[in-house]
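**User:**
Everyone, produce one record:

**Assistant:**
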Amino acid sequence: MAGQQFQYDDSGNTFFYFLTSFVGLIVIPATYYLWPRDQNAEQLRLKSLRRVHGRCLWYRLRLMKSQQICLSTQQLDREYQEYNPYEVLNLDPGASLSEIKKQYRVLSLKFHPDKGGNEATFMRIAKAYAALTNEQSRQNWEMYGNPDGPGATSFGIALPAWIVDQKNSMLVLLVYGLAFMVILPVVVGTWWYRSIRYSGDQILINTTQLFMHFMYKTPNMNMKRLAMVLTAAFEFDPRSNKETTIRPTDNIEVPQLIRELGNINVKKKEPPFCYPYSLKARVLVLAHLARMDVSEELEEDQRFVVRKSPALLQEMINVGCQLTMMANSRGGFHAPRLVTIENCMKLTQMIVQGLQESKSPLLQLPHFEEEHLRYCISKKYKVRSLQDLVSLKDSDRRSMLRFLGEEKYDEVIAVLGSFPHLTMDTKLQVLDDEDSNNITAGSIVTVTVTLTRKRMSDMFEKEQESTPCPGEEETQVKLKPKCGRTRVKAPLLCLPKPNRPMATWQETYVSSNYEEDEASDKGSESDEGEANKDSPSERDEDSDKQSDTEVDEMEWEALQQSIQRRERALLETKSKVTHPVYSIYFPEEKQEWWWLYIADRRDQTLVSVPYHVCTLKDTEEVELKFPAPSKTGNYQYSVILRSDSFLGLDQIKPLKLEVHEAKAMLDNHPQWDIPDTEEEDEEQEDSDGIEESEEDDEDND
């Protein structure tokens, strides 16, 4: 184009800046994500978890891997550390020649190959002796850091010479074109077509469709059927996932496990339950739940199946929720029953802990076996859950667990103390409404649930604090009611022994009440004259206005706090690393997560979608929303909290819902009514403005 000039960089200097920037965009993020983590920090973290999680399978595997990395790092450091002949001979720097010869003679007699010593060690000793006694070797060591001279280490360019040869320029250009125009697009296309087979949660799309088919086909799914559907996932099929393998020895070992397990529906001909991969995965999961030993070859496959199962069960829960919403909005088919979704959650707990459905939750603790449960469920203690074990007095607990030694008992208490203890507070309201406490038909109800996590060890401390101390006694204070007052019965208190009789305490309480009444009577008499100046109707109106303004201000502040809380939740990215789960048989470190939802247990239906709480460390606030029923009346729901890692820690809290009739919509709302005087004033202002504009136009003409 005319008037424009272009300048080209003939020297090519700026091209290198462009190339450096382009490469930096790739290299810097890749370096950040691929840089090896600090192994010392990992070692310290594992050391801090050893007392509680030392027996867990995932801990032992992680510790073994960390030790291997540290060992390889130490070997690499030893290979590249600076050569020092004094250290080889175990001498201090600056030792005399006679000391060097004497030490060499001692080490030679010890490590000489003819004397049964190590030949490599002897060669290192001889090399160090030569470096300190031979003048040329000493000079090489002092100048180059090696007694052999500079030839010990060499550097070169990692490029063949024919690449820079001018005769091969066309061949090099052809290779570059083949690499960037053919191989690179093929690699990117292959990666793309493989990645689109997975969902956002890294679950195969075919597996999601399989779950949807069977949950639609069987809305009420028991635990045995659920295990069959889970192990039919395509993640366990070698044709869809290269991480799985089918070994020739499976034809011998899998039937042997089937005979030991008993009835697992082997003869079922329904595909894909009859396929070999599905049958093998089902056998491995059931063997894991039964805590059976398998061969070393099958153990690797079992760890893979068990490690994948929680994510697959979470996908199954998501599919069940989607089908429930579709059934509520469209109709035409039966949504999955509540028991099906809750069985998915319970199966996740069972797989993480390696326990069957009928087993006691006490078997999650270390050193507990089936034969030990008879001591717990006896008539004297009646301990059937973890909460029952915590609520026992320490003396009774020690007496019941006397079959354990002192060391094992301390380990059991340490593990039990690390288990979570959650409290759940609920608040029911209708946000963005004038009356947030009035639930009308069809309105969007918000249940704000505040979860507070503590440790079971805190419950031990509370128990110790609640026991009477020496010199103290539990005293139940009963107070005689004063005339015109309700009877008060104080709870059990841990009070010090009174130094005066109980009647004196009672007289003090009664006399203080009389004094308060007399003071209030005098105050009312003095204020009576001033109060009579205003009429009762005026006082009532003022108090009503004041109370209305206070209520409005409180509601406005609550609304503002709710909006700020939502904004913080949207902007804040919390870590999903919460608390490590104590699981003896799970092969991977599992974080402590929870499900929170509202259900109608009478109709066996979901009311709100289960929320997966993955960021609960100390306190978490969750909002569950659902539409109120279209008919007025009283409804009984349940707020349910379920763990995805522990058995026996689920909580259910009743939620009462009173639905009123919705208010009729007003056609002419008072705030839109404009008085006639205001309309006339607006018309007058408009006419005055028009006249002024006409006068300005005439002046301009």
Summary: The longest strand covers residues 444-455.
